[in-house]
Amino acid sequence: QVQLQESGPGLVKPSQTLSLTCTVSGGSITTNDYYWTWIRQPPGKGMEWIGYIGYSGSTYYRASLKSRSSISRDTSKNQFTLHLSSVTPEDTAVYYCASWNSNIQGYIYWGQGTQVTVSS
Q: What distance lies between CA 64 and its chain's CA centroid?
């Protein structure tokens, strides 16, 4: 069974870059038709899609975060990483990694989520 696990710092200072890694086990991030996604949920708000890196390495980002976001991958480690620069307290959220399958048109697997707080 495919499992996703987020890792990274729980506390980041304003203006710094947040980096979170999702480690995938039980399946390959290069498997066709899968899009490896980052999603977050700020406190008291709904889920917010951040972006994805596809099985071919293509990337796509939320328009409002595009200038600050990048998603990369390490296929040798079966990991993908979110970098979010110039963070502010508004970036405080629970961050999730998940896999979207284009055939099913839905999220198949989710990580458990990791809390990130932006504070000085």
A: 15
Q: Give the C-alpha separation, 44 to 72, whole Å.
A: 29
Neighbours of 21 (CB within 10 A): 18
Q: How far is CA 58 from the centre of its chain?
A: 14
The torsion region of residue 64 among left (phi > 0), alpha (psi -120 to 50) and beta comes to: alpha
Q: Which residue in 48, 18, 33, 47 sits closest to 108, CA to CA? A: 33
Quick: pLDDT tens for 63-116: 999 999 999 999 999 999 999 999 999 999 999 999 999 999 999 999 999 999
Q: How many residues does the chain have?
A: 120
Which one-letter DSSP state was computed for residue 57? S
- Are 56 and 50 in contact by the 8 Å Cβ rule? The answer is no
